[in-house]
Amino acid sequence: MVRDANKVKRVAFDKENIANNENFDNNIFSDEFSVQLHDNKIVIYRVRDSVAQVLPKSNHPLKVNVVAGISRRGTTSILVFENIMTSAFYINSILVSGLIPFINRVYPDTHRFQKDNDPKHTSSATKDLMKQHSINWWDNWPAESPDFNPIEMVWSMMKSRLSKKEPRTKEDLINGIKLFWREDMTITVCNNFIDHIFKVMPIAVVIGRRATGDLPKKIFPERSSGFHAVF
């Protein structure tokens, strides 16, 4: 559910991008995600009126966190970690060790970094570091808008791939994540996910500020190469 104040910001943000015919060529979309080894969601089929089978489940399922970014020129490195993210961790392990080298190598000409409004991402220390290293960030990204971030679909794809491999240990899980990032996340795949924004933003305007995740998938048109909306 999107709060009313953020609904207005979402529509204004969408209209601005549509009016500018934004193509997201220089954007780096980032996000964090948690991957759980055993989510305890198991479907059991049994004969009618038979005794239900009780299966043991882990009280402390293994979970790791990942953070990464995608762009039209490919992916950033992916960081897998278990500790709680702090502002210092975000600055040192993600921005300094990951994002800045990626920008220098892949986007030496121009870039725009997308991040959400998590306090760790908007702290004074984080902003000072980004200014110091000339990181150009998207400062009007609307809150409560994960449907605008194409990397959200990447996490869904990653979960699907991992579930098929059925990792049993932490090492299996981490190796599966890194293998997915290395082999599945090609430049073509990145661009296909980013192109999905061309579908989401116009519809978000037309439907009266609701989150597009509330809609049936059939409402989305086939893949497009730009914005086509009248409002």
UniProtKB/TrEMBL annotation:
Stored Gene3D superfamilies: Ribonuclease H-like superfamily/Ribonuclease H
- What protein name applies here? Tc1-like transposase DDE domain-containing protein
The residue ranges crossing the membrane are none
Signal peptide annotation: none
All copies of the Tc1-like transposase DDE domain together span: 28-173
Cite the GO molecular-function annotations of the record: nucleic acid binding
What InterPro entries does the record tag this protein with? RNaseH_sf, Tc1-like_DDE_dom, Transposase_5
